[in-house]
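## Example record

The block below lists the input lines for one assembly entry, exactly as stored, with component labels intact.
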Amino acid sequence: MPDRPARPPRAESREVVELKQLRAAHPELASAIDMQLELVEMQRRVQARVPLPWIHPDPEWLATQQSAGRPVVRFGDIPLDWSDFRLAFRQTADILHRYESVDRAAHQQMQALSRDGNALQPIVTEWYQATSRVDDLPPPAADGAPANIDQVLLLAIRPFLTRCAEALIQRADFSAWRFGHCPFCGWEPDFAVIMPSGDRRLICGRCVAQWPFDQLTCPFCENDDRSQITSFATPDGLYRVNACNVCKRYLKAYDARHAARPVMVAVDTIATLPLDAAAMQRGYQ
Ligand SMILES: [Zn+2]
Ligand SMILES: [Zn+2]
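Predicted C-alpha cells for the full assembly:
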C-alpha cells in the first residue's frame, strides 16, 4: 500500500522562505537568521489579532503636525490590548535572550515586568510619548529600566503600530513629509529602499512605514553636502550604504533597480549584516 501523503505544512510567508534560502546560502548568518525567523513568526501571530484601528484625526491637526515635523500616531490611537502586548513583550524578550541579545539580568527584569498586570503600561506609555514626540513633550528621566528594553519594546509594539500606519495612510496624504524621522511614530529610519525611479524611501525602524526622502541627504543630521556623503554598494549592486561624514551615521538600502522582488525589511536587514561590519570598520555607527 502506498504511504498516505503527508499533510502539507502551513504555507510559509515569503519572508520565511527568503530567510531560509539566505541561511542555506550564508551559513555564517545562521544564528541571526534563526532569531529573525522566530521574531517574524511571533509578530505574525500577534498582528493577526490586532484590529485595524478606527483613527479619524482632524485634517487641520494633521496638517499642523506634518508641517511642524511632528508625527501623527498618538498613543491613544494604538490598538493596544494589554494582555496581547504583555505576551508579545515576554516572547520578544525570550527570543532576544536565547540569541544572547539580552543578558540574563535584563531578561529576568523583563519577565517580572510582563508578569505584573500593571507594570508595563506606564513604561510603554512614557516611552512612546517621549520617543514619538507627537506632543512635543520633554523626554522623561531614565529610571532604572532594564538594559536593552528599547529594543524589546520596539519589536513588541511593532505589530500594533503597523496597523496604525496602515489605517492612516488610507486617510491622509503623507507625500509632502520631508523629515528624516517617521511621519507616523517619530522613530528613526532603520533601512531604505531605492525605487526603480531612483527615488529613495526611508523605512521606519519601529513601525516599518515608508516615506520619501532625498537620496543624498543624511536623515539623521540633515547634512546635504554631497561631498560629505560616502556611498558604497555590494558587488551585485543589490544593497547600498550611504554614510554621513558629518554625524558619522549610516543607512543601508535595498536597490530595487537591480532587484527581482520588492524590499523585505525582515530579510534585507539580515542579508546586509556584513555591510554593517564594513560600515563600522570605516568608522561609522
Ligand atoms: Zn514609524
Ligand atoms: Zn549625518
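The CA atoms of residues 93 and 152 lie 6 Å apart. The mean pLDDT is 92.
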